[in-house]
Design a protein that fits this description.
about 375 residues; Aspartate Aminotransferase, domain 2; seven-stranded mixed β-sheet
C-alpha cells in the first residue's frame, strides 16, 4: 500500500500534518513585513524551547553546519580544545576542530558507553594556566543511543572559568530537559529534522554573552556562517542571506505544536517512549547496546546476536514499510537503531514493536515468547 511509510530513525523524523500543510503554502518574500512577523514569533519560541534569553540564531544548514558555526565563531587557530568522543558525532567534532587548526585533545569512551565526567574534571582542574578554550561534546550520541552527562561536564567547565561549553544538542533538544540559561551553556547547536519535527534544512545556534565576548577576538575565518551577521539581522526579525522561507513557516507551525504540548509533557513523552522501547526489546531477548542509566530519549540501539541486524531492517522495510536505522562505521551490520524522537506516539511504538516481532518470527528467531514485546511496551504505557 502506498503512502504508509513509517520513519523510526533518528532523523529525518516524522512530520506532522499541520507542519506539512504549512510547508506547502505559497512562498512569500523573505524581506516582507509578513515574513518579519513570522521570524519574530519563531525567534521568541526558539528561546522558549532552549529555555534561554540569549540569542538563538537560525541558519540554512544541517546540524553539522550548526556545529561548525558554533566552533569557528568563538575560537582561533591553535586554541586548545577538549572534545568528548564516544561515537560517530564526537569523532566528527574532533575531526572538524582539527581541520580548523585547533589543538585537539579527545576524551574517549567505547561506543555504547557514556563519557567519563571525571576525566573532564581532571583535565580542566590540571589546566591552571587556562589554556583550554572550549569543551565540545555531543549530548545525545545518535550513533549509539547514549546520553552523555552534560550537566556534570558543564559544571566542571564552569569551575574552570575560562573554557566555553559547546554542545551538539541535535538529537537532545526538544527531547530531554536542556535548561540553557540555568546551566549557563555557552553554545548549543541543533537541527530541524530531529525534535523540531520539520524536514532537514535549518540549523540553530544559541549563543551566551560569554561566547559573544570570545567572538570579538576569535580569528578563525568565517563568512556565510558568521554569527555576528545573524545576530544583527535577527534583532530586526530578518536574516543576512536568503532563508528557506517555507521551512521557517513550517517551523512556526511546529513550535506552536510544541508549545501546546508543553516542555514537561514533551520530555515525559520521550522518556515514556524510550522506556517502552527498551523494555520491549529486552522482553524479546534482544541485547541493548547501551546501559539504561545513559539511555538517549532519541533512539534505542539494539545489538542482536542470533539474527542479523541488516536482515531485520530489510524485512521491516519490505514487509511493513517501517524504516529502522543501521549501525555506523565499525558497527555497521552489528546493531540497528529504533528512533523515537519528535512526532512519535505510543501507537507508533506499539506498531513498530509488533512489526519487529513478526520480522523476528519470519527470520526464524526462536529466543522470544510471541507477544512479549508488545506486552512489555503496553505495561509501560499503562503505568504512565
Amino acid at each position: 500500500m502506498d503512502d504508509k511509510h513509517m520513519l523510526m530513525i533518528p532523523g529525518p523524523t516524522p512530520v506532522p500534518e499541520k507542519v506539512l500543510l504549512a510547508l506547502s503554502k505559497h512562498p512569500i518574500g523573505h524581506r516582507s513585513g509578513e515574513f518579519s512577523q513570522i521570524m519574530a514569533e519563531v525567534t521568541q519560541n526558539l528561546k522558549w524551547l532552549h529555555q534561554t534569553q540569549n540569542d538563538v540564531l537560525v541558519l540554512t544548514v544541517s546540524g553539522t553546519g550548526a556545529m561548525e558555526a558554533g566552533i569557528i565563531n568563538f575560537l582561533s587557530p591553535g586554541d586548545r580544545v577538549l572534545v568528548g568522543s564516544n561515537g560517530k558525532f564526537g569523532d566528527r567534532w574532533a575531526a572538524m576542530s582539527a581541520a580548523f587548526g585547533l589543538e585537539v585533545e579527545t576524551i574517549t569512551a567505547d561506543w555504547g558507553k557514556p563519557l567519563d565526567t571525571e576525566q573532564f574534571r581532571e583535565k580542566l582542574a590540571a589546566d591552571t594556566e587556562k589554556n583550554i578554550k572550549a569543551v565540545i561534546i555531543t549530548h545525545s550520541e545518535t550513533s549509539t543511543g547514549v546520553l552523555n552527562d552534560l550537566e556534570t561536564i558543564n559544571r566542571h567547565v564552569k569551575e574552570h572559568g575560562e573554557a566555553l561549553m559547546i554542545v551538539d544538542a541535535v538529537t537532545s533538544l526538544g527531547a530531554v530537559n536542556l535548561p540553557v540559561d540555568e546551566w549557563g551553556i555557552d553554545v548549543v547547536a541543533s537541527g530541524s529534522q530531529k525534535g523540531y519535527m520539520i524536514p532537514p534544512g535549518l540549523g540553530f545556534v544559541s549563543v551566551s554573552p560569554k561566547a559573544w565576548e570570545a567572538y570579538k577576538t576569535a580569528k578563525l575565518p568565517r563568512f556565510y556562517l558568521d554569527l555576528g551577521k545573524y545576530s544583527k539581522t535577527a534583532a530586526k526579525n530578518s536574516n543576512p542571506f536568503t532563508p528557506p522561507v517555507n521551512l521557517v513557516v513550517a517551523l512556526q507551525a511546529a513550535l506552536r505544536m510544541m508549545q501546546a504540548e508543553g516542555l514537561e509533557s514533551i520530555f515525559a513523552r520521550h522518556q515514556r517512549l524510550m522506556r517502552a522501547t527498551r523494555e520491549a526489546v529486552q522482553a524479546l531477548s534482544l541485547p541493548l547496546f547501551g546501559p539504561d542509566e545513559a539511555a538517549s530519549p532519541a533512539i534505542t540501539a539494539v545489538a542482536p546476536v542470533s539474527v542479523e541486524s541488516e536482515q531485520i531492517r530489510a524485512v521491516m522495510k519490505k514487509r511493513f514499510d517501517i524504516s529502522l536505522a543501521g549501525g555506523q562505521d565499525d558497527y555497521k551490520g552489528k546493531i540497528f537503531r529504533i528512533g523515537h524522537l519528535g512526532f512519535v506516539s505510543d501507537r507508533d511504538i506499539l506498531a513498530a514493536i509488533g512489526a519487529l516481532e513478526a520480522t523476528l518470527r519470519e527470520l526464524g528467531y526462536e529466543s522470544m515468547t510471541p507477544g512479549a514485546g508488545i506486552a512489555a511496551a503496553a505495561r509501560v504505557f499503562a503505568q504512565s
